[in-house]
Design goal:
single chain, mainly beta, 8 strands
């Protein structure tokens, strides 16, 4: 059994314009909590840092609050909101 707190001791915190992600590493699994401010978009706030056309990391997500529109590289789109879950492979997140 393993336990970590994203509130008091994340293993890593990544900050970027209008957002941050706290990460906890549990063996081979990394769990993150993202907080994105109004006006955040992947293209404006993260793409300049990582220098790729789209996010290269897959995501398994649960949305607590707010809304997020996701656009896949192939053009498929979905909007997520409170209570939604999703498995999202490489994506461009437009906010």
């Amino acid at each position: 059994m393993q336990k970590k707190s994203l509130d008091s001791s994340p293993d890593e915190t990544r900050t970027f314009e209008k957002g941050k992600i706290d990460l906890a590493n549990l063996g081979d699994v990394t769990i993150g909590r993202g907080v994105l401010e109004p006006g955040w978009s992947w293209e404006k706030c993260v793409k300049p840092l990582v220098k790729t056309n789209s996010c290269q990391a897959p995501h398994t997500q649960y949305f607590v609050s707010g809304r997020l529109k996701v656009v896949m590289d192939d053009g498929a789109e979905e909007e997520f909101g409170p209570g939604d879950t999703g498995i999202i492979p490489r994506v461009i997140m437009l906010g």
